[in-house]
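To: structure subgroup
Subject: Chain for Friday's discussion

All,

I'm putting the inputs and outputs inline so they're searchable in the archive.
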Amino acid sequence: FMLITIPEKHIIRLKDITHIQNESNFIVIYTTQDKNYTSEEAFNTVEKVLEEKGFIKVNRNTLINISYIGNSINLGHKRSLNIFGITYINVSRRRMQILKDVYIRGILGK
């Protein structure tokens, strides 16, 4: 899967993407190399493709690569999770149970 970025074209490997956030008219792609890329690709389009590739939607505007869920996940009232050891992302109430299931499967599968 290739994501076209602004203003240049880049090919970003899926395994390098930690998470993607929707910012109205564009998306921001966060990577393991501490580089952020922007793309005019529609968030819904990216979501549909990446859900089958190990990404999960945790709130209205964020997709995460489940490979980078850190070992700290707050399931309390704050509902946040640690991505790549440094970034905390809020999880919606509706997505929390799905995330718990994915997280537990990941722990038990290791």
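Points worth raising on Friday:
DSSP finds two helices and eight strands in the chain.
The helical segments are 43-50, 93-109.

D.
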